[in-house]
């Protein structure tokens, strides 16, 4: 059952605080099951959306690889940063929540979500921005370079590949991510090795333009932004 149509969506912009984003996501995902709605609302305290948004091209087209419930694209649509957004994921149920949020945000004309068996089935584009957020640590290590390559091929000349994943640096922040993933997915994940994505990006003519370690609460994030050179 849908929530009342009068449910208001709080205004957000690229400078929104985690508390403001919590209220935004709680309203935007009011038509989704309560556990997912709650997780979407608290994720801004962990995921550095403020860092991600600044590297998405204004007015461009975005492909979100492994989009889950579509929170990044929902936020990009609400802040009017993009002309079009496509999300794809190998898991079908979260995509229903993504579509529900797009309806609630009146963003169905610019956001679409596709169920795929692999990144190879994602729309070809090319796109101004391709995002891969917290995806690769769920991929088998032997398949990670191929998944990254498929995403890289969808970046247009001059466009960017926006990559973020949990830190592989030894210590408590790495352990916190492992425990978090195990609680929610029953999977003891293996982090992406340091330096791996930089090597793969270089193999596909993507230049590193920004790298940053981002601590949040007890977690740690590795952000890498790559740009395809214009030909």
> What is the beta-strand fraction?
25-35%
Described by strand count, sense and barrel closure, the largest sheet is: 7 strands, mixed
The tally of structural domains comes to 1
Query: Which residue ranges are poorly predicted, with pLDDT under 50 across at least 5 consecutive positions?
Result: 1-6
Notes on the protein architecture:
This protein has 231 residues and is an alpha/beta fold. The chain has a single domain (48-228), classed as Vaccinia Virus protein VP39 (Rossmann fold). Helix content is 33%, strand content 26%. The chain has 8 helices and 7 strands. A 7-stranded mixed beta sheet has the order 3-2-1-4-5-7-6, with helices on both faces. Helix 4 links the parallel strand 1 and strand 2 (82-89). The chain is globular and about 45 Å long.
Quick take:
The chain has 231 residues and is an alpha/beta fold.
List its traits.
2-polyprenyl-6-hydroxyphenol methylase activity, seven-stranded mixed β-sheet, Ubiquinone biosynthesis O-methyltransferase, 33% helix, alpha/beta, single chain, globular, Rossmann fold, 8 helices, 231 residues, disordered N terminus
Strand and helix layout:
Layout lengths: L17 H11 L5 H9 L6 H5 L6 E6 L5 H8 L3 E8 L3 H12 L6 E5 L11 E7 L10 H9 L2 E12 L5 H14 L10 H8 L2 E11 L2 E10 L3
Parallel strand pairs: 1-2, 1-4, 2-3, 4-5
Antiparallel strand pairs: 5-7, 6-7
Helix pairs in contact: 1-2, 6-8
Organism: Caballeronia temeraria
GO molecular function, one term: 2-polyprenyl-6-hydroxyphenol methylase activity
InterPro entries: Methyltransf_12, SAM-dependent_MTases_sf
């Amino acid at each position: 059952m849908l929530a009342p149509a009068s449910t208001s969506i709080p205004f957000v912009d690229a400078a929104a605080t985690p508390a403001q984003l919590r209220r935004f996501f709680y309203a935007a995902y009011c038509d989704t099951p309560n556990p997912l709605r709650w997780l979407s609302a608290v994720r801004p305290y962990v995921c550095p959306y403020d860092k991600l948004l600044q590297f998405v091209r204004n007015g461009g087209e975005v492909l979100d690889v492994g989009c889950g419930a579509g929170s990044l694209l929902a936020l990009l649509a609400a802040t009017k940063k993009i002309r079009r957004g496509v999300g794809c994921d190998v898991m079908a149920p979260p995509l229903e929540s993504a579509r529900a949020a797009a309806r609630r945000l009146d963003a169905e004309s610019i956001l679409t979500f596709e169920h795929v068996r692999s990144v190879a089935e994602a729309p070809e584009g090319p796109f101004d921005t391709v995002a891969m957020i917290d995806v690769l640590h769920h991929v088998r290590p032997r398949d990670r370079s191929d998944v990254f390559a498929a995403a890289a091929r969808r970046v247009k000349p001059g466009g960017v590949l926006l990559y973020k994943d949990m830190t592989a640096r030894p210590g408590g922040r790495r352990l916190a991510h492992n425990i978090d993933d195990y609680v929610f997915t029953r999977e003891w994940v293996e982090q992406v090795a340091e330096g791996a994505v930089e090597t793969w990006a270089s193999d596909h003519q993507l230049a590193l333009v920004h790298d940053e370690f981002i601590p949040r609460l007890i977690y740690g994030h590795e952000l890498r932004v790559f740009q395809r050179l214009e030909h």
